[in-house]
Specification:
single chain, alpha/beta, 12 strands
Length: 273
């Protein structure tokens, strides 16, 4: 199976966080393709690899400059008035990957947030992707859809009533095949993002439930687990425990990498001797 891992990294802080994630991916044995959609090519040593390809965001795709002189872009921060227009504008770029590469070159594209660390070999992930007939695999959210704004924001009250007790998705990990169905899915994801209600996660949740209800499945927490969020970690550093997951998500690590760095030192580097 030919796979490409895919990151979106905009901003200097994102590049620093990405370096940790990318390095961990290489350290668990991945030698194949990694795609990085970024606003600025990074020379950070941890990102240098023959099969890591940095793709520069086209200015006509993204504008996060609030000044009136900036030319209009397809995704333009000035068009949005939501909770976090800067962050959400950047995440709306995620479905644009097929504008930068021919996704049919790979059997699967695996999108990853930059605040994810790999801590185990990838065999289990590949077995899941090979063994399930449904095309789309996405991370499990820690909460149900009802009352979970990152999941439910783009849903109607009727949809929340229907699906509220189901486990929500988390768009920090999304796998999709390199085919025409995924091109259709990415186009629909863009369209839902452009509504500007919330982030890419809420848009993808709505899209999957409306158009692909029987074609996506949730990755188990053994594939992607969650470390305590940065606020929880700052209140109680002892909440950081070793997890038995292939990947671990460190929410907020782009601005607050302390939990990620401690986990590396305490459970990865120490185990390596």
């Amino acid at each position: 199976m030919k796979i490409a891992f895919y990151y979106l990294a905009v901003g200097e802080g994102a590049a620093q966080c990405l370096e940790h994630s990318h390095k961990s991916l290489r350290e668990v044995g991945w030698t194949g393709d990694v795609l990085v959609l970024t606003d600025k090519r990074s020379e950070l040593p941890g990102l240098q690899h023959a099969n890591t390809h940095q793709l520069i965001v086209k200015p006509e795709h993204l504008n996060i400059d609030t000044s009136e002189s900036a030319p209009p872009a397809i995704i333009d921060i000035r068009n949005y008035d939501n909770k976090d227009p800067y962050k959400f504008s950047i995440t709306y770029l995620t479905p644009f990957i097929d504008d930068y590469v021919d996704i049919t070159r790979w059997d699967y594209i695996v999108f990853l947030d930059i605040d994810i660390l790999f801590v185990q070999p990838l065999d289990t992930l590949f077995e899941i992707l090979k063994g399930d007939s449904r095309p789309f695999c996405v991370a499990s959210n820690r909460r149900k859809i009802r009352g979970n704004t990152p999941c439910s924001a783009n849903l109607t009250p009727e949809e929340i009533e229907q699906h509220g007790d189901e486990q929500g998705i988390c768009s920090n990990f999304v796998c999709f095949p390199g085919n025409s169905l995924s091109k259709e899915m990415l186009a629909g994801w863009r369209e839902e993002c452009f509504r500007g209600i919330h982030g890419d996660q809420a848009a993808l949740q709505a899209l999957f439930l409306r158009k692909y209800p029987d074609q996506f499945y949730l990755a188990p927490f053994s594939i992607l687990g969650y470390a305590p969020g940065w606020k929880e970690y700052q209140k109680d550093p002892g909440s950081l425990k070793k997890l038995d997951s292939l990947m671990i998500h460190f929410q907020g690590a782009i601005r607050h990498p302390e939990a990620l760095l401690e986990y590396q030192d305490k459970y990865i580097r120490a185990a390596a001797g």
